[in-house]
Amino acid sequence: MTADMEVEVRxxxxxxxxxxxxxxxxxxxxxxxxxxxxxxxxxxxxxLDGRLLxxxxxxxxxxxxxxxxxxxxxxxxxxxxLEDGDAVSVTPPVTGGAT
Length: 99
Known about the structure:
Order of helices and strands: EHEHEEE
CATH superfamily: Beta-grasp domain
Helix content: 10-25%
């Protein structure tokens, strides 16, 4: 794969803990999608396997994924294409609170 662009991946809460970093800067080819980025991060960090994408390659309903501050559901979901310098933020489900 030829690295045509750089993408920043921002991880929050348990995802950050699993990786040990709050952000990763990775290189991808110009055709990379959100799905490609998340699959790459899962492959690199086994503790995330199956937590960013479900077995069919879709986004779990409980995980929030944003491209440059806007939820990818407003684009093409996991097929959202990325550009050089984009930031992909991944937030796990929020739990807790009063009962």
